[in-house]
């Protein structure tokens, strides 16, 4: 029996090492993308002022980080402004005549690229204080994602400590993260719930710079709804938050919830089905337990 316990403890050691590697890679992804988001907040303060820059870039299932908004580059905006100022045939824009009866074509032709985009560039590149709301949302998003990334590693470390304690008793190695099964279960659940609410708080005020041709599911109160003119949340973010919340059900299959609540109820239910349902009772009971 002790040999089986040592084998289980070694497997838990291996799982902890794998979770540590996954944690390092996920933190690297978050550091790169959240750092990029912060630089965008600093360089594009006008967009940050009305919340269009910061959108939830949360870690998706499998470690893929999908952007949730479309940022307009400066070059494209300059080209758009240049086209808007151009007047001539087949543009739909009128040439207004002067008091002498002639058209002001000379002044229009003399208008250079720098004269058109110069004031716009100077206005957008002025130093303005970054709004606290954008900083706060980025901070909430960072804390929520770090908790989401660290939670599997915390659970693996707790299971590792518990397995070694079962083998060696009080002489097992311990560290500051060593908790009992019940406390580890509760702390892990709190980390998941807190991570979800922090990420949601950062995502629900996001106004993505995307096309409004199709309504996007948004968070309103306690329900997701589609609002063509309201706050927009990318569909990938909505799906990922739903997936994370559904995984809370897995806590019912972990000790101590399984040992003291779910397993006794499941066994009582299957025993009743196997006893009172004729012919197929035991088969159905076994299927339900599985």
Automatic annotation (TrEMBL):
Source organism, top-level taxon: Eukaryota
Keywords: Peroxisome, Peroxisome biogenesis
Principal location listed in the UniProt entry: membrane
Gene Ontology cellular-component terms listed: peroxisomal membrane
One Pfam family, short name: Pex16
Family, as annotated: Belongs to the peroxin-16 family.
The protein, known as: Peroxisomal membrane protein PEX16
Organism field: Trieres chinensis (Marine centric diatom)
